[in-house]
Predict the 3D structure of the following.
Amino acid sequence: MLDETLCLHAGYEPENGAPGVMPICQSTTYRFDSTEHIGDLFDMPTAHMYSRFSNPTVEAVEKKIAALEGGAGAMCTSSGQAASLLSILNLCSAGDSFISASTIYGGTVNLFSVTLKRFGIECIFVDADADEETIEKAFKENTKAVFGETIANPALAVLDIEKFARIAHKKGVPFIVDNTFATPVLCKPICFGADIVIHSTTKYMDGHALQVGGVIVDSGNFDWTKGNWPDFCEPDESYHGVTYTRDFGRSAYIAKARMQLMRDFGCYPAAHSAFLLNIGLETLPLRMERYCQNGLAVAKYFAASPKIESVSYSALPGDRYYPLAQKYLPKGSCGVVSVIIGGGKKNAVRFMDGLRLACNEVHVADIRTCVLHPASATHRQLTDEQLIAAGVQPGLIRFSTGLENIADILSDIEQSLKNV
């Protein structure tokens, strides 16, 4: 089935006489006929037993997203940040390292470079546009993963997914891709060699600014039996001797993430949150098409203004990442446009504060147009060097085009640019 159909029907298949719309199973617990049955579930969780790590409503959404990405399984989390964290902790322990593209979301940079460092896990940042040989030199003997974003937030750099997949697999480690801005409607990283895909479902997947969430999708393609992966191939004594590769096959990664990490961290979304996310997913293909149309129109408008120093939008002919976008994002490059206004931060703030339709808020990828100044908000904790590496200039504005009529969006931009 194609995306439009999957978004409506995957994950939940009503039985005869059942509700046509996916129901909300708002319960923390599940009842069983015997003590033995519950005990068996603690050896092999083949059914829901506690909503800290699984729930029927959330499971239906997990199946839908896994189908959209072409994965073997998925696990929802309470935020995109939690998805990023667990995707790494499922692979790395104290004393390990992993590689990440430097052009990623500021909150993820802080998570990787500060918080994980406190846990004894080193993140080695690399220039995503560097050649393969240069990136390979960043690897150490203890490197366990490679991480990047399909469309970087907010630099909007497009990742060469196949290049990074080749490097990771040559080194015998899995490749994790944050596909938040592209969504599986615009790009399916697994088709280009990614092993794990994550999302902040808070963004385009939800689309309505209703709830915070995340998801991890396991491709099922990485062979954990080759290489140094004892956590996957040897009995897990914390879960009564389960061996993930033996007992879960292609779903070993996502099963381990749920049985070890979600069990212990408990960052699982509520059933009602998953219900709201599912409503957003049902219209995702339609919305992404309009986001891309409006985003390109906004990018062209900014590019034609003498008050704009530069525009980053990979679907714009002449953009640095246009060739990669044609390969990985042929349907469009989402609705987010990054612009640098001449005159630096002062003029950027003047423009943003003068907007009437667009909201100045800490959000992106909403149905409503919104703007943000990353250097003073989402990337505020980064050093000057990290800001440069992330592609964030003082005058950079992240303009997230919504679904309003494009004439109204452009009119709002026009009236506010008069203030600059």
